[in-house]
Amino acid sequence: MRFFPWGFWLLCVASAPARGDSGSKARSCAEVRQLYGAKGFSLSGVPQAEISGEHLRICPQGYTCCTSEMEENFANKSRSEFEAMMKEAGRSVQTTLTAQHRSFDSYFQDLLNKSEKALYDAFPSIYGELYTQNMKVFKDLYSELRRYYRGSNINLEEALNEFWTRLLERLFKLMNSQYLITDEYLDCMVKHAEQHKPFGEVPRDLKVKATRAFIAARSYAQGFLVGSDVVKKVSQVSLSHECTRAIMKLMYCPHCRGMSSVKPCNNYCLNVVKGCLANQADLNTEWKYLMDSLVVVADRIDGPYNVDTVIGTIHMRIAEAISNLQENKDSITAKVFQGCGNPKINTKGSSSEDKKRRGKVALEAKSSAQALEMLVLDAKGNLTALKTYWITLPSSLCSKKVTASAAADDKCWNGMTKGSYLPEVMGDGLANQINNPEVEVDITKPDMTIRQQIMQLKIMTNRLGNANIGNDVDFQDASDDMSGSGSGDSCPDDVCGKRLSKSPSTRQPETHAIPKQSGHGISGASSRSLPSTFLLILWVAFIAAQHLWR
């Protein structure tokens, strides 16, 4: 019978590729043993030379230097190392954003502090008791301005209006101390006096300019913090089980196969990382909007809103307002008396002339416009560089951390052996991973932590958009904005709707993957443990044997 020679020959030919380029002699596992020990694992049970790999569940099941225990340890190590790469990349972005926030915050707070100090230094000598007896009014103003800038839910226009009202009441009473001014009389006085602009145009002008400047400044500063917080939270998202297997296969399976010097193919690495970071890539659109919005508001701060001049000269505008009141004191008083009646004489009072000093204000403001210009210029450069962070992260990790081979290399690790990598590179984002040949991604289940961060970016961008046109916004805590997010509402319809509409039944067959192996829960790319040519030849041998037997 001719069956035995034919079948034997075909089986011999079919089994030849299983050893790859290892030759007839089992290769040494010295390199893997060295790597395994360097990772902190015991060398007990580690093979000295290659063994058969039928036990492997992630790496190709050819000859191998890895036991089941080694494969599991390498998988856990690859997971922790990849998550560490993500956090390290995120920390770099966080450092940039927090540094920008710190620089601007320091500049702005210093600007406000210098204005307040200039007021405290100059007003006692200029106004005497007009200032010293009303010091709290001025301190309260600067305190409210700081609270507003730091994010407290304060209506800035109302705070400024309250300051001018309190200041008018105190100064009117002090400048007319020979009269007995009651609280009821002061209420009437304010109504009549404000019609005649006792402080001139200063309150209205300062309210418009200061409001725009403060809204822009606090939104700008908060934008950096929100961006940094988003990166931090997203960097802490754990890898999926499928991703862990794919990362293991990318980073450590070549070592198990005795190919420690062979680098992963670049496109292979990109597909693995893009599949693992599919949800993160969906941050890209809103992230770019936030970076662009910060750049626009930065131009406003250094341009039309003129933060340096407006904030740095608040004390001078207050002094100008007080001078206007002093100059118009007699006419304002006469109009108030006409509308509210003459108050009673205060027999215990002394002449107001002894309690006030007149004189033109000679205050100076030291400009720090050049410092602001440099801050804005530096910030715009960094923001522009960070715009594409989420979609360039896979290529950055592959080139700098995984140290993948050059794109044209045809002798790289392709997930099975040393050779070229044929599958095309997937697009960015969750929806584009439907046919990822390396990582099985369920595009109908977006990561909710990342969806919440997408919403945070949208909220912050909206605040910056309002700040750009001078509109005040409710600046509650970021955590409050996401109340109830656990219900799943945090995934916007325009983001999730399209992707959820793709049911599993519409998925195209994965042309580079073998179906799951029963009993092991192995899926996707990780299940391709034997070369397809080997299976094909076995099938041919079986058909030939059947034919010859007949």
From TrEMBL:
One of its GO terms (molecular function) is fibroblast growth factor binding. It is a lipid-anchor; GPI-anchor. Its main location: membrane. The keyword Signal applies. Keywords: Cell membrane, Disulfide bond, Glycoprotein, GPI-anchor, Heparan sulfate, Lipoprotein, Membrane, Proteoglycan, Secreted, Signal. Residues 481-494 have a biased composition (Low complexity). GO terms for biological process: cell migration; negative regulation of fibroblast growth factor receptor signaling pathway; regulation of protein localization to membrane. GO terms for cellular component: cell surface; extracellular region; plasma membrane; side of membrane; synapse. It is found in: Cell membrane; Secreted, Extracellular space. Belongs to the glypican family. Residues 475-524 are annotated as: Disordered. Cell surface proteoglycan. It comes from Heliornis fulica (sungrebe). This is Glypican-1. Residues 1-20 form the signal peptide.
